[in-house]
Design goal:
Length: about 260
Amino acid sequence: MRLDPQKLRAYYADPPQDISLDDVDLGRIPSHVSIIMDGNGRWATARGLDRSRGHVAGVDSLREAVTTSVRLGLDVLSVYAFSTENWRRPQREVDLLMHLFATTLVKELPLFHQENVRLRFLGDIDALPDRTARVFHQGLDETADHTGMTFALAVNYGSRAEIARAARELARDVAAGRLAPDDVDEGAIGARLYTAGLPDPDLLIRTSGELRLSNYLLWQLAYTEFYVTDTLWPDFDRWEFLRAVAAFQGRSRRFGGVVGS
Ligand code: IPE
Ligand code: IPE
Ligand code: MG
């Protein structure tokens, strides 16, 4: 945890009535928060706007979520930006999203440098349109030496595809004699997932009220606490984030054991 209390206080000045920084225990901030950013389309439709405007507005929420995570001293923030199933959307919307990913990343690289954030991708980014893939690799290269928070962006990510990919790798290793079948354990599987080396999420936030995982981190969320808010992603701000952390701190995590043992 790399929390600067003074910066954090300044960032969380002017609280609304129901939540303030005093409602969270700064000594028990989750290490890894993951977010399913949902509701951009509904946000736009409710305003009589094209869905694309919701995605554009969602970028501002994402920038704020990154800054909030840095201020709170998280080790990892991961977000679900585009699923393997999202290719089913109208071509125009897919094109807009791919364009938005590339332009946003280029624009936000200075923020990653300033905050010492290391970028990572979850998903098959080499199957993305050329420019988007190129910019993503550039982002990886340029932030590789950063030692602060890890920001993991799930794009062209599907959990079942990820697990199948890990299984293929294991099969190859076994077939080549590099791995014994008895060594295929949870660690060997975890090391072949896109999240290799990252701690499992402590807290999963899903915006816009949907009570499902939509093929996200099925393996990694085994003991994660879930927080679902009706707030649509473009309306999700630092205060919503704090409400989620406060709710998380009110949970009793047992990991299959008994409280207090
Ligand atoms: C989430 O918002 C963004 C992506 C999946 C890319 P949606 O576009 O799913 O918004 P809704 O769910 O239609 O409101
Ligand atoms: C999940 O949202 C994927 C992302 C947020 C990227 P969707 O909007 O695609 O999920 P469903 O279709 O409602 O399950
Ligand atoms: Mg959605």
